[in-house]
Specification:
Elements (H helix, E strand, L loop, with lengths): L2 E3 L7 E2 L2 E2 L11 E2 L4 E3 L2 E5 L7 H7 L11 E3 L4 E3 L6 E2 L20 E3 L9 H18 L6 H4 E3 H4 L8 H5 L1 H17 L11 E2 L2 E2 L6 H7 L1 H7 L3 H12 L22 H6 L2 H7 L7 H12 L8
Helix pairs in contact: 2-6, 7-8, 7-9
The structure holds zinc ion.
Zinc ion binds next to loops.
Length: 303
């Protein structure tokens, strides 16, 4: 598996984070090219006690650092430092290599640390979404992840302990790769099996899960159990618009708020507020429907 890429910086939204490239790497720290053939995505950690994507990107703006990476990821930001068509200096090794990955055939992702040299789970999940995005870009499928998504440690005979926690605790590395595979297979690192919930030609599976809906609404579970059709009918007819009689606020959640939250969606889409009116029981259905037909494809923020 390999792909010729001539792409430079990318502006995609990854797990709700727009990739930034405001601090490009100094040209003395990588190999410039107009295109190259890429196969591998090595995963790293920065090896500092605590840092951020921005501080790393700024660091590599200085000449003669003798190293670089394409991406730096932390809990809330992703900085692209080196253009994809250029070779970052991330896995060069004077002692030789264990596999055929080289700087020239790799896109390297550095995970930043949140304290005590450790990468937080949030950063790891952001890195997994970025990794899956790059896999799609270069044609790595879920079944090929184990071959082409590698630890820096797997690449070099020096056995560099990078990312350290994935070397000392391999189950964390397996978890990371499972997230990447889940994202490639289902769109979610949680690997939720896709169910379809169709109403008037629109699939509401981005905002509704009947088992979650039953578990989150004990009155409905008592009435309907886990009956998919009855629960979905309730969501369509009442659930999206049910409100707390005291506060007037929408009171039902159709799917884990880690996936979709209608209030967050409305608050980050002022164009929809203009089109539909402020979020309320009488406008809520428009927001749900819009997310299912357009919003998720546009990577609009919903959590
Ligand atoms: Zn490394």
């Amino acid at each position: 598996m390999s792909k010729v890429i001539s792409t430079g910086f990318i502006d995609d939204v990854i797990n709700g984070i727009k990739i930034s490239h405001q601090y490009p790497c100094h040209s003395s720290n990588y190999t410039n090219s107009s295109k190259r053939t890429v196969s591998y995505i090595p995963i790293h950690y920065t090896g500092n006690p605590k840092d951020t994507s921005m501080s790393n990107a700024k660091y590599f703006q200085t000449a003669n650092r003798k190293a670089s990476a394409h991406f730096f990821v932390d809990d809330s930001h992703i900085e692209q430092s080196v253009e994809l068509r250029d070779s970052a200096w991330a896995i060069g090794c004077s002692q030789g290599y264990k596999i055929s990955a080289r700087n020239s055939s790799s896109i390297s992702i550095e995970m930043c640390t949140s304290g005590n040299y450790l990468v937080s789970q949030k950063t790891q999940i952001n890195a997994a979404y970025l990794c899956a995005h790059l896999c799609k870009m270069i044609g790595v499928t879920a079944s090929q992840v184990d071959t082409y998504v590698v630890r820096h440690y797997d690449c070099v005979k020096s056995n560099k302990a990078c990312p350290k926690q994935y070397v000392t605790n391999p189950s964390e590395w397996i978890q990371f790769k499972t997230w990447v595979k889940n994202i490639l297979n289902t769109g979610s690192h949680l690997g939720v099996v896709k169910e379809d919930y169709i109403y008037q030609g629109v699939n509401y599976n981005k905002v509704f899960d009947h088992k979650f809906y039953a578990d989150a609404n004990t009155d409905l579970k008592a009435a309907f159990g886990y009956d998919k059709t009855k629960l979905f009918n309730h969501f369509i007819n009442n659930g999206m618009t049910d409100a707390d009689p005291k506060t007037g606020k929408l009171s039902r959640v159709g799917k884990t708020i880690a996936t979709f939250n209608v209030e967050v969606y409305a608050s980050h889409s002022p164009d929809l507020v203009s089109a539909f009116g402020a979020l309320s029981p009488s406008t809520a259905k428009n927001y749900y429907r819009h997310y299912c037909t357009n919003g998720y494809k546009e990577n609009r923020r919903a959590i």
